[in-house]
Amino acid sequence: MESLEPGTETAGAQLTPDLSIIVPAYNDAGSIEAVVREASYVASQAAPRHEILVVNDGSRDSTGEILDKLSREFDALRVIHHKVNRGFGYTMRELYHSAAGKLVFSIPGDGQIRAAQLERMLPAAELADLVVGWREIRNDAGRRKRQSYVYNFLIRTLYGVTIGDVNSVKLIHRRLLDAVVPLQTESPFIDAELCIRALRRGFLIRGVVIEHMPRQYGTGSGGKWGIIWATIKDMLLMWPALRSTREGPWARSHLQRGSAGDLEPPVSGSWKRDGEP
Predict the structure, then answer these.
(1) Domain extent at residue 138
(2) Is residue 4 part of a domain?
(3) Which one in 4, 28, 52, 142 has a CA-CA gap of 20 to 30 Å to 16?
């Protein structure tokens, strides 16, 4: 795997990680240990200094106990426990705000997108501020796939954002996070808010095709009507504020399927899609 250049050291100061892998976890006892172990291996290959930050969002199973055990084994693992379930959006906002790395990579605690996908996404980060993984073949139930299609359609219609998989995993440069936080929403709209604010400020986003695995343990909560309603409400409530900060035209041209050599020079404030001018 391609390695990140190590950061500079300052005597007497806490060292900044070169890479943070952030993981939301909720009732993921069947998968979280494998997720953390793979994340630790992948991070150690990619960056000399790294952290793995997991938020246990009030899990009712043994997720918390497993994470506490792993934190005694892996020095780079940081675990935050919520006493009660706060929801995916709140958890992701906390992860985005708490990650210290110069690059921040998000993966789910259910193992459907593995940490090894970082290897596919790193080359694109050389020419972009934010890299979004595109689940070209999505191993979810038909209902979840239809909900995702409608959601991304609404994002395109309301905000003009042509990112096809806005809630997928992301590889984010620190300069972008510093520009868009604090994020406001606490629903799953949080990922769309991040992307919209980034594009409004002229940052470049690229997409990379990634693998999406079938879920082996538990059930996802994203399809529950309460969560869907909270997401739609935030999408509508945030529209006046996010729309008013629009900066410049939307560019479109490349969704990466190969190596970094396939990429065109970056264009400010754009989403790159394959086959478009």
Answers:
(1) 19-272
(2) no
(3) 28
